[in-house]
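Service request form, structural biology core

Requester: graduate student, group of Dr. S.
Request type: structure prediction, single chain
Budget code: on file
Notes: please return the result as structure tokens.

Sequence provided:
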Amino acid sequence: MPPHRFRLLVFDVDGTLVDSQAAIVAAMNRTFEELGLTAPDPASTRHVVGLSLDEAVARLLPADAGPDLIAEAAQRYKHAFYTARHEPGYEEPLFPGVAETLPRLNHPQVCLGIATGKSRRGLVATLEHHGLDGHFVTLQTADTGHGKPHPRMLRDAMAEVGAEPGETVVVGDTVFDMEMARSAGTAALGVGWGYHPVADLRGAGAQRILDRFAELPAVLNELSHACASDDRVG
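Core staff response, request fulfilled:
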């Protein structure tokens, strides 16, 4: 039996499992250069990681950008990232502890899932590259509907595995992950190595902040006992 009561653990990818910031910033810079626009500063690009691609580029483009420019920027970004992925020297490394800790979370009674702003194609490529594809039973992307912070992906993941909100935990590095969890009524854990400041994660609803990925099993146990105690109050 797992040492906690949660049945579904849903992970973000960029900034949580893999450090893709250099690749994302480079692809966004190339996109803006091709459009003849000034590239956003890296901090602004990091801030929109986790959103659906259309929403992310819309926030970075000039305020008067119309739907045609947004769509073109999104397509150019996809092409830039896909091209970079197949160039020599491309890196999208796992954060320390991810490869070692995920197998420890994989109990028969626990499902692992993904909710990400990545495309389905990009997500599958990342998981396969790192040999992680066998760990996750539900893969939710923003390709076909609402992205974060809308709770649709998380609700779809719960429905797919038959988990209730009280049995579900989101692990992510952005306020969009925390807001998605809050909207869906699930627990939320922030990570301290990602792309949004820890203070912002706490403000958005993170119940704990992980300093290392390897802390996750123990934190799930603690959070489970805390939830059980809250259930008994009154």
